Every structure is written in structure tokens, then in C-alpha cells.
Amino acid sequence: MSTTASLCLLLSIFTTFVVVSNGELQRFTEPAKSDGSVSFIVIGDWGRRGSFNQSIVAYQMGKTGEKIDLDFVVSTGDNFYDNGLFSEHDPNFEQSFSNIYTAPSLQKQWYSVLGNHDYRGDAEAQLSSVLREIDSRWICLRSFVVDAELVEMFFVDTTPFVKEYYTEADGHTYDWRAVPSRNSYVKSLLRDLEVSLKSSKARWKIVVGHHAMRSIGHHGDTKELNEELLPILKENGVDLYMNGHDHCLQHMSDEDSPIQFLTSGAGSKAWRGDINPVTINPKSLKFYYDGQGFMSARFTHSDAEIVFYDVFGEVLHKWVTSKQLLHSSV
């Protein structure tokens, strides 16, 4: 058995899978480090068989993962281009994932949500246990929770929220087999999310989705998320919302709550100079980069540190906040 295969087997042993019914989302438990800290990398919009600098970003992720003593990886969706996977036996899975993220530090669990491009293929394929037999790092569900003790992460399937995908598909076909009714699906998801958020005792609460709530990138804000999802986040003390979709790196703050909006959608092809010409409060925009890269996050009981890196591994932006002092700095 290869070293990589052995590491992946260990992952399946040490990560606890807990299925919860009665209105709560499925949960996964990540054991804490001995010092109680949690560290992970966030990457989005990446799966291009190594092209558009995907392999170079992956290399830098591996170096950073070693430095921060990585616990797991978060993928914000659009995992496989251009149109997701065509089946659970699609070679693109290994060509864009297993064969790319080979660094020892990245042989940890990958928690992934679906993006709109993933829905253009066989969305069910990415959720299949067959992929976990191929590479046991891979965990992709529609919506779920990762409990890392002091940090709890709530992964939300945001593609079904976006109404234009049903009415203005631009020639694309979306896999709506699990979404027979947009309104009932979204209503049920929001109800389950709210139950999970209200029951959370975590020091830090993070919500992860594919689409942006706040963005000056190509796609801009997602109206449906701001109207239907954001109020629930505000009511339940969520600290951070992490997303992809716009192919950039970005940090914005909310104007009337402590929530920070963090975009990490630069895992491969980036959109240089493609900025959405919307009116935005300049005080809300903390950082924007239209090149390739990724983001890391480290949490302790009192502090959170968010760092954005470019394709060369250089630090572009660092944000630190403290729960004890209720003070943040850029």
C-alpha cells in the first residue's frame, strides 16, 4: 500500500461520521489538536486537470498546509469543470483531484459543497460513496455540519437558491433530481440549518456555500441568499461566511453585523480585471485580488486568523480578530 493510500485509510478511521435525523443536518466530527486549535485551507473553483495554474496552487497549498499543521481542507464548490462529473467513474475525479493534491499535508479530509458547474453534470456522482472508495479524503454532500469542537462549520447547498438557474439556464442542463421543487427544498434546508445553528455551542460558527452574499467580483451579490439565508446567519451569531463562485480572493464585512464575507474561488482559472460595477460602501471592502490563490484559517478559543495567498504562496492579506477583546485588525 502506498504512503498516500495509508494516510487516506487513517482518515477514514479517525474522522467520525454521525448521521442525525429529526430536522438536523448530517454531522462529521473532527478531533481537536492537543492545544485545542483548528487549522484548515479553503479552496474553490479548482478542478481543471491541473491547468490554469491549478497544479501550482496545489503545490503552494501543500507547503502552507505543513506550516499551519493542517487539520482538513474546505472546498467551496465548482469542484470539476466545465460541467461537473458525468458519472461516479469519470476519470476527471482523479485527474483533477487525486493526482493534483498530492502533498503529504493535504492527505486530510476534504469537505466539499456543490457549485453551479457541478450541478451541470451528474450531481449525484460527487455525493457517491464510490468516490470515497477511490479517494477516501473526499466528502461531498449537499448540506452538512463539521464539528471541530471550538469551531462548527455549516455547509449549505446554495445552487438551488438561485432562481435564474431554473428560468435562464443559458443552454445548460442542471441536475435537479433531488430538487423537485425549489421553494420546498430551500424552505426545508433553511429550517434544518436554523435548527443546527441554534443548537450549536461552538465558540466560532462558520457557514460555507458556493455563491457569494457580498462580492464585487463578476457575479456580485446573490440576491436570494441575502434575502433568505443571511437573516438566519445574523440571528444565530454566525462569525464568517465562506464562498467561491467568483474567481478571486476577497474579504468584505457586513455593514450592520459582525459577519465577515470571505471569498476563495481562485483555485485555477481567475478573471483578471473582471469587477462588478456595483455601488458598495468602501468601508465594507477589506481586500480584493483578481488572481489565483487560496485561503487559510486558524482558530483558537480566543482568536481567529484568516490569511490569503497568491499562486506563489505569498501572503496577500491577513485578518485577525479576538473574541475576548471584541476587536479586529487588518
From TrEMBL:
InterPro entries: Acid_PPase, Calcineurin-like_PHP, Metallophosphoesterase_PAP. It comes from the Eukaryota. Its EC number is 3.1.3.2. Residues 1-23 form the signal peptide. Pfam families: Metallophos. Its main location: secreted. One of its GO terms (cellular component) is extracellular region. It catalyses: a phosphate monoester + H2O = an alcohol + phosphate. Residues 40-248 form the Calcineurin-like phosphoesterase domain. Its cofactor is Fe cation; Zn(2+). One of its GO terms (molecular function) is acid phosphatase activity. It is an enzyme of class 3 (hydrolase). Keywords: Glycoprotein, Hydrolase, Iron, Metal-binding, Secreted, Signal, Zinc. It is found in: Secreted. Belongs to the metallophosphoesterase superfamily. Purple acid phosphatase family. PANTHER family: TARTRATE-RESISTANT ACID PHOSPHATASE TYPE 5 (PTHR10161:SF14). Homodimer. This is Purple acid phosphatase. It comes from Arabidopsis suecica.
